[in-house]
Design goal:
The complex is a heterodimer of chains A (614) and B (260). With 614 residues, chain A is α+β, with helices and mostly antiparallel strands. Chain A is built from 17 helices and 21 strands. The chains are: A alpha+beta (614), B alpha+beta (260).
């Protein structure tokens, strides 16, 4: 056993985890890859729009990596750390080339070049896409490369395994993980000389979001509970137009409004007539009324807020949380252009948007915050030192955070089509850092550590399971989860204020209390999803609390964080990263701020001019 | 909105199985009707309050899902006797299928049951490994763009690449059974997909050798059941024809050159 090579553990098989696995395996370091679902089914599969990179055509029109870098900072309201964003923008064209070589079926022009489309936050066509399922195509391409390394014997996959906790040695360095087989329910320790968490976002904390049902943020909180810090947890992106569903909210592309779709509500509160039966005069096209210049194409932030307010005031469709997005008046030719997104709407609602106004509502979409990470900047701050062992490492040595779970790159708001890029960039660029950490910094090999360390970790998790199964309380985990989602959506999404946040914190507090006296209806020891849900709920409640505390303390408006009681951005006080630490023994969060250095681009006002209206 | 009369209660008859080798049994659950429900949102409601129609306390049904927007392939089941994705199976439409009756949910029959509606589809992923489902690139270094491709070539590859490994095509296929070694339509599609890429083609001979083994393309009866049930409209007819042709050419070449 002592002869076994040091290995890396990667938790998460979305774009970030797969890219990391490929890069680490390429250095000859074996990788164990964990995922709650077969990696091909990871949430990255949902991304539709595309992936940004400066390209040949845009470059000749005056675009550059620098501009991509600058747009990302401007979009992020300057809360982003600049050296990693600089690298991401400069690596982007190379990443597209690599994906192209891996066989991603990017859309093509007649000459066989990669085709491009427009996206928000830029005046240049710089977004590469593969049909209407770019994320799926990228995920599959990386999955295929990982399968190749699997065939070579360098990668072992543990699919349907859930990460429960990192294992830290005496010096506080991460030396493995505890995980559970979701089918047999076996809990096991895995030794590893470095661990990458690439576990995605936390949309499920809000109940319904555009995310997959596995995006619960629990993995991040399990690291938080062991001393990892969170960065900017209060920054959550809300997309203005999604299709509300009983189970989740499905994204409805901005192009519906781009082509002339109009947003409206009935003038009468609680009007329950079918939309077609409500005459013109009894409709309020509130975006057009309030913003005559931009109308339905006001920037995302504004559209989201206005729709949200209308519904809170009681003007939503039938008094509920929906407004109409109406495309019924468009000429047939325009309707045909929108066929792709109409199909999605029809598939999930049964209604044909050609004939009936769509019902939409903003939905939680992306987690800008996440685990706090560090890096080694170059001396001129133009990028990170390649291969520096600490690139995107959390404050726990040997524990990394890549992809959406990493708080880096996007600051206060993420630009469309930048997430796929940041995930792959993390994996490819920082995968080398993981291998170098193992080679140079990891100290005593995980294989040589005492078995006791790992057995103790397993026992702790087994005890936690037994507690949940034995609990004889009266509360239902699904009910608690629903209430958590409701209060988070009501008070901690689009518009926030001191009072609402206080209410949310109290509610979460009492839900956490109720969590202590729960009863789960499945107490079996085989494929117990009820148990897994209840356990993750405990973590989600802690995440919810961190989000609310972060949002309460940040008394300014920046990016997606809008405070109706503090409307201005306040750089003097808050051009800072929120760092949150958790003392699990005493169940206490503490909050600190850290200055965001701005070595390359000085912050400027983020005016919602025409650039943002795209 | 065409609105036939809706019931107040929706009834689900669900085939359950507690463990791999356990005997299956049926349970009936009722869910209050609301517009725009799909099968998964009903299963979520049942999970919150798993009491059968007879009033007996049961346990939440176990099922597999992730994206809830018909793109990850996880949530396949047999619904009213037809294999499909449960996240996009709308209750309003299912009610039209069954009239006043019950909606039935069963696990796929061509894969071993893990529990309830969750089946083990590892065989599909193993096939991707066996057929070298990847483009053998030199490495992740910066080596410039990939091969150019016409929009027509891209279109075929894109359509093949939308296969989400859901297994509907295998459930419907008369040749594919729980315990034989037939490969099945989705893998034929993947073989053609990788063979269509200029670099992917490097491994074409190895893929076609594997296709000639027992359980390979020769066993396909061309009944085209697969095509009818594929939720992503993967062009399986074209794939099967191409895979057949490529294998024929390959075997003739092999015959004359004596080379593998
Ligand atoms: C509807 C939608 C459309 C989008 N469109 C775009 C777009 O067009 N362009 C763009 O750039 N971005 C887009 N995004 C954002 C982008 O898709 C995500 O940010 C990105 O895919 C996240 O990738 P990831 O690798 O970080 O994590 P994910 O893909 O979420 O993967 C997380 C992985 O971690 C695993 N995991 C999680 N918890 C555990 C645990 N406890 N134990 C074991 N494994 C665990 C999961 O199984 C999974 O494999 C979109 C997002 C949504 C919701
Ligand atoms: S054509 Fe028939 S035998 Fe061949 S894969 Fe399809 S269903 Fe199976
Ligand atoms: S070919 Fe179609 S039915 Fe078969 S696995 Fe792929 S997507 Fe599913
Ligand atoms: S849950 Fe992904 S296809 Fe249904």
């Amino acid at each position: 056993m002592a002869a076994e090579k040091p290995r890396a553990l990667v938790v998460g098989g979305g774009l970030a985890g797969l890219a990391a696995t490929i890069r680490i395996a390429e250095t000859g370091t074996p990788v164990d890859l964990f995922s709650m679902v077969p990696v091909k089914r990871s949430h990255s599969v949902c991304a539709q729009g595309g992936i940004n990179a400066c390209n040949k055509v845009a470059r000749q029109q005056g675009y550059s990596e620098w501009m991509h870098f600058d747009e990302t900072l401007y979009g992020g309201d300057f809360l982003n750390h600049q050296p990693p964003v600089y690298d991401m923008a400069h690596w982007a064209p190379r990443i597209i080339d690599l994906l192209d070589r891996m066989g991603v079926p990017f859309n093509r022009t007649h000459e066989g070049e990669r085709d491009l489309r427009m996206f928000g936050g830029s005046l240049f066509k710089r977004t590469h896409f593969a049909g209407a399922t770019t994320g799926q195509q990228l995920l599959y391409a990386l999955d295929e490369q990982v399968r190749r390394w699997e065939a070579e014997g360098l990668v072992r996959k543990f699919e349907f395994w859930e990460f429960l906790a990192p294992v830290l040695d005496d010096g506080g360095m991460c030396k493995g993980i505890i995980a559970q087989d979701m089918r047999t329910m076996e809990i096991r320790a895995f030794r590893g000389d470095a661990t990458v968490l690439a576990t995605g976002g936390n949309g499920l904390v809000y109940g319904k979001s555009t995310n997959s049902v596995i995006c619960n943020g629990a993995a991040a909180i399990r690291a938080y509970a062991q001393g990892a810090w969170l960065g900017n947890p209060e920054f959550i992106q809300v997309h203005p137009t999604a299709i509300p569903g009983e189970d989740k909210c499905r994204l409805m592309s901005e192009s519906a409004r781009g082509e002339g779709g109009r947003v409206w509500v009935p003038r009468k509160k609680g009007d329950s007539r079918a939309p077609g039966d409500i005459p013109e005069g009894e409709r309020s096209y509130f975006l057009e009324e309030k913003y005559p210049a931009y109308g339905n194409l006001v920037p995302r932030d504004i559209a989201t807020r206005e729709i949200f307010w209308k519904c809170l005031e009681g003007y939503g469709v039938a008094g509920g949380r929906m407004v109409y997005l109406d495309c019924t008046h468009l000429p047939d030719a325009t309707k045909n252009k929108l066929a792709g997104i109409f199909e999605i709407y029809e598939k999930f609602t049964g209604d044909d948007p050609r004939k009936v106004a769509m019902k939409i509502f903003p939905a939680v979409h992306y987690t800008m915050g996440g685990l706090y990470t560090v890096y080694t900047p170059r001396s001129d701050y133009k990028g990170m030192e390649p291969g520096a062992p600490n690139n995107m490492m959390t404050n726990i040595p040997g524990l990394y955070a890549f992809g959406e779970v990493n708080y880096q790159y996007h600051g206060g708001t993420r630009l469309g089509a930048n997430a796929l890029l940041s995930c792959i960039f993390d994996g490819l660029f920082c995968g080398l850092s993981v291998a170098n950490h193992i080679r140079d910094k990891a100290g005593k090999r995980a294989q040589e550590l005492s078995a006791g360390l790992y057995e103790q970790g397993v026992r702790r998790q087994e005890d936690a399971v037994r507690q949940l199964i034995d609990a004889k309380g009266e509360n239902n985990p699904y009910t608690i989860a629903r209430e958590m989602g409701e209060v988070m959506t009501d008070r901690v999404t689009v518009v926030r204020d001191e009072e609402g946040l206080k209410l949310a914190l109290n509610t979460i507090g009492s839900l956490r209390q109720r969590y202590q006296s729960m009863r789960i209806s499945d107490t079996g020891t085989w494929t117990n999803q009820n148990l897994a849900f209840a356990r993750a709920l405990g973590d989600m409640l802690i995440y919810a609390e961190a989000i609310v505390i972060g949002a309460t303390e940040r008394r300014e408006s920046r990016g997606s964080h809008f405070r109706s009681d503090h409307l201005e951005r306040n750089d003097d006080k808050y051009l800072k990263t929120t760092i949150m630490k958790y003392d699990a023994a005493n169940d206490r969060h503490t909050l600190e701020y850290e200055d965001v250095p701005t070595p390359l681009v000085k912050p400027r006002p983020r005016t919602y001019g025409k650039v943002e209206a795209a | 909105m065409i609105a036939p009369k809706k019931p107040e209660i929706i009834t689900f008859r669900i085939k359950r199985q507690d463990a791999r080798d356990a005997q299956p049994y049926w349970e009936v659950f009722e869910v209050p009707y609301k517009p725009n429900l799909n099968v998964i949102s009903c299963l979520q409601l049942i999970a919150e309050n798993p009491v059968t129609r007879e009033g007996r306390q049961s346990r939440p049904v176990v099922w597999d899902c992730s994206c809830l927007e018909e793109v990850c392939g996880a949530c396949t089941m047999v619904i009213n006797g037809r294999v499909r994705q449960s996240c996009s199976a709308l209750v309003d439409q299912l009610l039209e299928e069954v009239g006043e009756g019950e909606i039935t949910l069963e696990p796929m029959t061509k894969f071993p049951v893990v529990r309830d509606l969750w089946v083990d589809r590892q065989r599909m992923f193993d096939n991707l490994l066996r057929f070298k489902g990847w483009v053998p690139i030199d490495g992740t270094h910066d080596l410039g763009e990939g091969p150019k491709e016409s929009p027509e070539e891209q279109e075929l590859r894109y359509e093949l690449s939308r296969c989400m490994t859901c297994g509907c095509c295998l459930e419907a296929c008369p040749q594919f059974t729980l315990d034989n070694d037939f490969i099945g339509a989705n893998t034929f599609g993947q073989v053609v997909y990788f063979n269509a890429h200029k670099t992917g083609r490097v491994l074409m001979n190895e893929r076609l050798d594997a296709l000639m083994e027992p359980g390979g393309i020769a066993d396909c009866g061309n009944a085209q059941n697969c095509v009818k049930v594929c939720p992503k409209d993967v062009p399986l007819t074209i794939a099967i024809a191409k895979a057949g042709r490529q294998t024929t050419v390959h075997s003739i070449k092999r015959f004359f050159t004596g080379k593998r």
